[in-house]
Write the C-alpha cells for this entry.
Amino acid sequence: MSQGANQQEARECVQSSQPWNDPDAVPFIRFEKVTKKFGDFYAVDDVSLDIYRHELFALLGGSGCGKTTLLRMLAGFEELTDGKIFIDGVDMAGVPPYERPTNMMFQSYALFPHMSVETNVAFGLHQDGYSKSEIKDRVADMLALVQMSKFAKRKPHQLSGGQRQRVALARSLVKQPKVLLLDEPLGALDKKLREQTQFELVNIQEKLGTTFVMVTHDQEEAMTMASRIAVMNEGVIKQKGTPFELYEYPNSRFTANFLGQVNLIEGTLVDDDEKYAIIRSDDIGGDIYIDHAVQGHEGTTLWVALRPERLRLCTEKPEDSAHNCFGGKVEEIGYLGGLSTYHVRLDSGLRIKVSEPNTHRHNEPRYTWEDRVWVTWETGSASVLNQ
Amino acid sequence: MSEIKPTLKQRFDRWMIRHGRVLVIGLPYLWLFLFFLVPFLIVLKISFATAEYAQPPYSALFQWVDEGVNVAINFGNYLFLLSDSLYITAYLNSIRIAAISTVITLLIGYPMAYGIARAKGSTRNLLLMLVILPFWTSFLIRVYAWIGILDREGLINAALMGMHIISEPLIMRQTEFAVYIGIVYTYLPFMILPLYSTLEKMDGSLLEAALDLGCKPWKAFLKITLPLSMPGVLAGSLLVFIPAVGEFVIPELLGGPNTLMIGRTLWNEFFSNRDWPIASSVAIAMLIFLVVPIMYFQHIQGKTEEAGK
Amino acid sequence: MSGKRSIFLTSALCFGFAFLYVPILLVIIYSFNEGKLVTVWAGFSTKWYVELFQDDGMIDAAWNSLRIGVMSATLALAIGTPAGLVMSRFGRFKTRTMFSGMIAAPLVMPDVITGLSLLLLFVTMEQLIGWPEGRGMTTIVIAHTTFCAAYVAVVIQSRLAGMDSSIEEAAMDLGAKPTKIFFLITLPMILPALMAGWLLSFTLSLDDLVISSFVAGPGSTTLPMKVFSSVRLGVSPEINALATLIIVAISILIIIASILVMRSERQRSRQIQDDPGIVG
Ligand SMILES: Nc1ncnc2c1ncn2[C@@H]1O[C@H](COP(=O)(O)OP(=O)(O)OP(=O)(O)O)[C@@H](O)[C@H]1O
Ligand SMILES: [Mg+2]
C-alpha cells in the first residue's frame, strides 16, 4: 500500500467517521437474521448486525452468551442454522474458512508448536503461493510492527504470554485480511500488559485500516478500544452503539448494568408535562423529576438508571434543590484512590451507591460511617428505561 | 481465481474437499467392518450348522434346492452345550477365575498405582516405565517364566526342600492357584495404568480440603480418593476381566488338565475335535456373556474421551 | 504424607515390582546355566545361545514373525491413524457409535473369539471369491492389522484429544486446505504418537500366539507358535535364551525411546530457563 493511498483512505475515514449514522453507507460485514442452534439450544438467536469498513467493532457479553459462536460463523468454522452473512457484498454461504477474506486471532493463540515464530507468520503467505523473497520481506515487516524481530527464530514454547500474543497478531495480519477477527485477544495477559497492549492494538488498527471485529467480556476493554460495541446476552444483541451511546443512553437494565455501575430505581410514571416527567417510586420514597421526554403513558412501570458519579453528597440539605433530594445515612465507604464510593441507606430503606472523586488530599474521608447526608442529582442526569 | 479452466490440481483439491471426509472415515470403517464385524456374523451362522467331514468341515446353512432356498438351521449345537455339564462347568469356571483374578489384581494394583501417582517427578516416570516395560515384553515368555518357578522340580520347591522346610514337593503348577498367579502377573499393568491415570489427574487439594475439614486420612481415602478413582477401577477391572474370561494360554500352560476354562474348551473343540460348529457356538455363548461388560467398557472409553476434550 | 501411609505404599510398590520382575530375572539368569535342569545351577555357559542360533526352525519362525510384525504395524498405522482422527476431530456422524464400538471392542475381545471368527471369515471368503487362497502370512497380517489398528486409533485419539483443535483451525483460517493441514500441522504434531503406535503394534504382533494359530497355514509358523509348542513340553534352556534375547532387545528399544523423549523435554525446559530475553 502506497503512502498516498494511505492518506487518501485516512481522509475518507475521517469524512465518514460515523458511517452507521449515514443512511447511504454500505455495510462491509452484514449479519442477516443469523441463527445458530446446537441441538435444541440457541447459541445465537436471530442476530442482525452491520459493521462498516475500518471499524473496530466489539462484541461484548458474559460467558456463554454466543460471542465466540458469532465470530466463528464469520470465520467459517460453524455453519449457520439460519440467516446469511455478507462480507464486502459477497454471500459467505458455502465459502470454506480458507477462502474467506478474514483472518482470526485465536483465544488460545493456536501457534503451531513445531514451527518457529518466522515460519508461523509465513504460513499463511505460503498457502497463497507468494515468492520466497516477498514472503521474507512481509514477514520481516510484520515482525517489526509487533516488535518481535528479535525473536524470529524462537519456537512458541520459548516465548512469554505477551510475546505469543504478538506473534498470533502478526500471523493473522500478515495476509492483509479484509477483516481481522479477535477472540478475547488480551484475555491471557495480566492487567498492566493488557492496558498497554490495548493501545498498541488500536494504533496498529489505525495504521493498517483493517476492519477489526473483537470479542471480549471486559467492558473497560471494549469501551477503550472499540468504535462501536454490541452487547450480547443469551444469543441476542441487546443493544449496539458507540461506547458513549451505550453508557449514557442504555436501552435496558441489562446494558445499564453491564457497562459500568448503576443504581436502578423502579417507579411508575405519574405525570409527563412539558417541563418534567415525574416518576413516583415507593423504593426511594418520593418523586423523581426527569427533564427529558419519557416513553410510556401514565401508570407505566419504569426504571430510573442513575450512575454513581452523577450523584452528589452533601451534609446539609441544599436549599435550591426542590427536586431529587433524598436523605440517608452512610453505611459503607470504599476508598479506591482516585475515587471513593459511598453506600448510602436512604430513609426509605433503599441503598444507593454514590462515587465522588478525591480531588484533594484530605486527612480523612469527607464523610464517615453513620453520617447523615443528602443525595441529590440534576434532573438531566438520569436515564429512564422501559425494560 | 479463474473459474474457467480448472487445472488438474484444482480439480483434485475440489474432489478432496467434497469427498475427503468420506474417504478418511471410509477406509478404517470398511476395514473394521469387514474384518471385525462381519466375522462375528459368520461365527453366528456357522454355530447353527452341523459338523461334517468335508472341507470346510460344516454343513451349508442355505442350500439352493429346486423350489428355492432351503434353510437348515440347527439348534443342536446349543442344546448340546446345555446338556453336557463339561461346557457349563467350563463357562462358570472361567467367570469365577476371571472374577477372582480381577479382584486380586485390583488389590495389588491399586496401592501400586496410588504410590506411583504420589511419587515425585522423575521417580514417578521411572516407576511408570517399570510398570510398562513388562507389558512390552512377550506375554508368552512371562507365562513361561512361572513354569520354571511353580513346577514340581521348579525353583520354589527346590528352595523349600533345600532349606528342609518341606520334604515332599508342593503341587503348584497345574492347579487353579497357578492360573491365578498367571493372570494376575500378566494383566497387572492393564490394571495399574488406567488407575494411575485417574489418580494422577485427581486434584491433590481435594484430599487436603477433606483433611482440613477434620476427616481422618483413612476416611478421606474412602470418601474422596476411592470414589473419584472409580472410573479407573472400572476401566482397569474390565481390561483384566474380559480377556481373562477367554484366556487360553495361561490355563493351558499353568493350569491342570481339569482347570476347565471356556477359551481352552473352544481351542480344543476347534483344534483337537475339529468340530467348527460347536467351537462357534461356544464362541457365541461366550460373547453373549461378555457383550454387556464390553459395551460398558466402550461406554467408559467414550466418557473419558469426552472428558479429555 | 503421613509416615504410616508412606511405609505402606512403599512396601506395596516393592512387593509389586518384585512380583513383576523376579520371574523375568530368573529366566535371564537360568539362560546362562550350563545344565539342563532349571533348579540346579551347573555353572556359567552360553551354550544355549549357540544352540538357539543353530535351530533353523526357530530362526525361520523368528523371521516370519519379524516380517509379519513390520507389515502389520505399518498397515495398522495406515488404518488406525484415520480412525483416531475421525474419533477426535470429525464430530458427530450417523454411525459414530458403531464406529467407536468397533475400535473399543478389539482391545478387550478374547483372542480365541477373534481368531476363530477371522478364520471362519477367511474360509468363507475363499469359498465365495477365491481370496485369500489358503492361509498363511497374508491372513496373519490381516488379522494382526485389525486388532493393532484399534490400539493405534486409541493412541492417536488420546494424543489428538490433548491437542488444541484451534491449531488446525488456525491453519485453515490462514488458507490451508484440509489435506495440507493434515500433512503440515497434524502429522508433525502427532509424530511421537505415531511412533508409539507403530512400536506398540509391532510388539503386539510379535507377541500374538492365539490369533496366529487360528489363521496360520503351513509354512507360516510364527515365533510364539514355535515357542508354545516347545514350552508345552516343559522348561527348556533354549527358550530361556530366546526369552532373554527378546527381553533385552525390547528393553533397550524402550529405554532408548524414553531417554530420547525425556531429553527433548528437558532441553525444552532448559531453553526456556536459560533465556533471559523470554520474559518481558
Ligand atoms: N460445539 C458446541 N456444541 C454445543 N454447544 C455449544 C458448542 N459451542 C458452543 N456451545 C454453546 O453455545 C453457547 C455460546 O458459546 P460461545 O462459545 O459462543 O460463548 P462465548 O460468548 O464465547 O463465551 P465465553 O466468554 O465463555 O468464551 C454456550 O452456551 C455453549 O455451551
Ligand atoms: Mg468465547
